[in-house]
Amino acid sequence: MIHELYRVLNFFLVLLISVVLTAVQSVLLKLPPVAWLELDLLLLVVVYLSLHRGFMEGALLIIVIGRIAEVHSGAPTGILTACYLAVFLAILFTKEMFLVATTFSSIILAVTGGLIWKVAFLVLAQRYGILGNVWRASLEYMLPFQLALGVFARPVFHLMRTLDQRTHVERESEARELTGEEF
Amino acid sequence: MWNIIKEYRHYLATLVLVIVPVIALNAGGKSPAEFHWFDRTAVAVSTPVQSMIRWGIETTWDGLQSYVMLLSTQSNNRSLALENRRLLNEIASFQEVAKENERLRHVVDFNAPLEGKKIVAQVIAQDVNPQFRMIRINKGTKQGVEPGMAVIALEGVVGRVNRAGNDFSDVISLLDSYSAIDALLQRNRVRGVVEGQGSQTLSMKYLRRTDDVQEGDLIVSSGIGGLFPKGLTIGKVTSVKKKSFGISQMVEVAPAADFNRLEEVTVIDPPKMPLEQASLDGEPRDGKHKKKEERHGTPKTPAPPPAAQ
Question: Nearest-CA distance from A136 to chain B in Å?
Fold first, then answer.
């Protein structure tokens, strides 16, 4: 019973952290000295959840996180959720092929997640008829975007891991990885 | 049947995950004009955090300016006094022009479209996604802000209210890739459409190759479409590119408002559009354009050939 309560608590705390990170991203990271980085903290949360959550829980969390991002954005409904889900599915399906054990490998994975996000976004932008306007802006800052993801991956992953440890979700996710129960 | 579903449940779930957002994209289009309960909850949590961070930044910056940067105050004061004197002279001459203008308006019975309520608001946050350029302001329906209202700053046009909550509103800025505004070159009244690129620059489209456009030309709103009053500054031409083929030219525009440092804006009621202007903008469109117009208010339609004005 306690375990289920922790699980539910963890679910809502992840969402709360996402909302706070969204607020930070929309104010602090939009200041002129750092705005050019175009950092997406929610994408890092999505990458972390893809690694440490099962299919159903992860998907549900990411759909809600996608909606949180859309509420704080002028993006068309569904486009950010779809991009985050693309990252989630890509990492979920391929993570068994890679050993994600060190900080460096997590950073590489975050940067790869950023790449998948961009590709998914450009495909959807094309589908939605705005590619002509956004492709240049989207690709122009690709390098700083990827670089910022790599730099900020560690603190965000650390924050998420701490949350998981406090709510005893980390132990469970490790066990699932060992037994191969993940998806 | 159940066994098949059970066996392939993960693939089915994946399919659903891919299909749902695509359906949402088709059905929803641009962000809906109203907030649902979940949206309101998320914003209720994030807005205080955003305001707090904003307050922290402003307090720190003000502190720095007040104490650390006092060294340059005296020289700044002197140059400001000089500029003040120059501006006072200019105001005096403008007042004369304004009076003359007023008299002439009376003579030709011109109805000024600039009337309406004005609400001053503070920018509290920007778009969470760099590809879109929404800004959030701290005034909402409680203060009289409604979707569709125009937003301007001292420097010029900012954008349009997309959706409004109780105490905040989301403004689709000029820079957003969904933004389009009918515009004029101030120097020679050539007409075109200024569109957002999702970056820090705008582009002016539907200009003929033969139109005289030069770097540094000022671009103002044409007033067509009824959203922005005529004559508001949009930006300045920064580059003009003509390819060796085609009938148009590529014009890049730097917006007059500095969107990175935008702090205060004014929300204004869209002026009532005269019937003749409405019919100008109401040319037949295909379904796609109509859909865009419904979602964003300012349609991205090619401007009719520029008329001599």
Answer: 8
Neighbouring-strand partners of residue B163: B170
ipTM above 0.85, yes or no: no
Residues of B whose CB is below 8 A from A142: none
Task: Tell me the DSSP string of B5-22.
Answer: HHHTHHHHHHHHHHHHHH
The Cα of B217 is separated from the nearest Cα of chain A by a number of Å equal to: 23
Q: What 3-state class would DSSP assign to B115?
A: coil
pLDDT at res. B161: 92
B227 burial (CB, 10 Å; 0-12 / 13-18 / 19+) is buried
Would you give the end-to-end CA distance of chain B in angstroms?
71
Q: Look up the pTM and report it.
A: 0.71
Distance CA A48, CA B89 (A): 62
Mutation pick from A134, A139, A142 vs chain B, by most beta carbons of B within 10 Å, is A134
Maximum mean pLDDT: which of A123-132, A162-171, B207-216, B285-294: B207-216
Inter-chain Cβ pairs, chain A and chain B, closer than 8 A: 167
